[in-house]
């Protein structure tokens, strides 16, 4: 079935309450960029990506001006072939960033179209293992007062969440430890609690923070330092004493491969909307650490 058209849209989604974390400043809204792929029979698949407030126009332009004309007239089901062709068409100014976000939106739309044409949910189209996925409530709550943090937590518990993630990375590590301690006491010793530093710390600061937080038993410490420092991540895993989650700011399969191979991440976190779409996401999910890293 040939692709008849690819339509890109760019939205601004204002947040009811401005949010903040340790690196992105105040987030007043998200940008949503959608790609809708229609085939010659009128079947449609939708994909999307997002930003935390800037750069969306470039992503939209890549979809509308480069990827849409490239895909029209091609067979919709040759998704792997299109992924490789899109990667190389945008390679010189790409290999991550806006290119990865644009490709993600288009690739998700192609997979959505395939699943809709098959009349099956995507998890079955991808091979089928288990439709149930454990999920957590992730607050963007670094600047919340402790009262507001605990109130948000109670609301999430009432909504049925059985795991919660909170932000760390305040100017004072003692402040972080006190807030995580208050959450641990509030939730009980065995409740799954994760902490997310949004790349705030140097490697030495992250190791110090991990050691300070270890007795509060977070499930993982997320994005302790910049995504570019692969050896630094490996040091934090080895010397910090906490499992490390990372990947929201990795945008290629190759970046994930390097970080995993180096032993720099315990819980890889590919975001399907920014790692290259479903095609790249599945390849990342199948990566394994070398047995020598254990
Ligand atoms: Mg995060």
Please characterize this protein's 3D structure.
This protein has about 290 residues and is an alpha/beta fold. The protein has two domains: about 120 residues, 2-Layer Sandwich (Enolase-like, domain 1), CATH 3.30.390.10; about 110 residues, TIM Barrel, CATH 3.20.20.120. About 40% of the residues lie in helices and about 20% in strands. Helix 7 links the parallel strand 6 and strand 7. The longest helix has 22 residues. The structure holds magnesium ion.
Short summary of the structure?
This protein is α/β, with parallel strands linked by helices and 294 residues long.
Which keywords apply here?
binds magnesium ion; TIM Barrel; Enolase-like, domain 1; three-stranded antiparallel beta sheet; 9 strands; alpha/beta; six-stranded parallel beta sheet; 19% strand
The hetero molecules present are: magnesium ion
Low-confidence stretches: none
Portion in helices: 40-55%
Q: What is the CATH homologous superfamily assignment of the largest domain?
A: Enolase-like, N-terminal domain
CATH class of the largest domain: Alpha Beta
Q: What is the CATH topology descriptor of the largest domain?
A: Enolase-like, domain 1
Count of discrete structural domains: 2
Structural class: alpha/beta
Mean pLDDT value: 95
CATH architecture of the largest domain: 2-Layer Sandwich
Order of helices and strands: EEEHHHHEHEHEHEHEHEH
């Amino acid at each position: 079935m040939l692709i008849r058209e690819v339509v890109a849209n760019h939205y601004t989604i204002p947040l009811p309450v401005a949010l903040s974390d340790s690196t992105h400043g105040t987030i007043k809204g998200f940008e949503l960029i959608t790609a809708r792929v229609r085939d010659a029979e009128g079947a449609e698949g939708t994909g999307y990506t997002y930003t935390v407030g800037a750069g969306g126009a470039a992503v939209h332009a890549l979809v509308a001006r480069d990827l849409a004309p490239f895909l029209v007239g091609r067979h919709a089901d040759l998704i792997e072939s299109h992924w490789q062709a899109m990667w190389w068409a945008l390679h010189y100014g790409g290999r991550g960033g806006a290119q990865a976000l644009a490709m993600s939106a288009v690739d998700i739309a192609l997979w959505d179209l395939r699943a809709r044409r098959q009349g099956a949910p995507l998890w079955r189209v991808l091979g089928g293992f288990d439709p149930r996925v454990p999920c957590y409530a992730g607050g963007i709550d670094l600047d919340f007062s402790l009262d507001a943090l605990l109130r948000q937590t109670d609301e999430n518990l009432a909504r049925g969440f059985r795991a919660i993630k909170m932000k760390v990375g305040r100017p004072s590590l003692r402040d972080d430890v006190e807030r995580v301690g208050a959450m641990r006491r509030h939730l009980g010793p065995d409740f799954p609690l994760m902490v997310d530093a949004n790349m705030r710390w140097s490697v030495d600061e992250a190791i110090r923070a991990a050691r300070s937080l270890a007795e509060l038993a977070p499930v993982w410490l997320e994005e302790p330092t910049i995504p570019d420092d692969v050896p630094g991540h490996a040091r934090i895993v080895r010397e910090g004493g906490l499992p490390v989650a990372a990947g929201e700011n990795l945008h290629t399969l190759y970046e994930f491969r390097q970080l995993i191979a180096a032993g720099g991440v315990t819980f890889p976190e590919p975001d399907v909307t920014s790692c290259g779409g479903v095609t790249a996401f599945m390849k990342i999910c199948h990566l394994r650490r070398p047995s020598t890293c254990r």
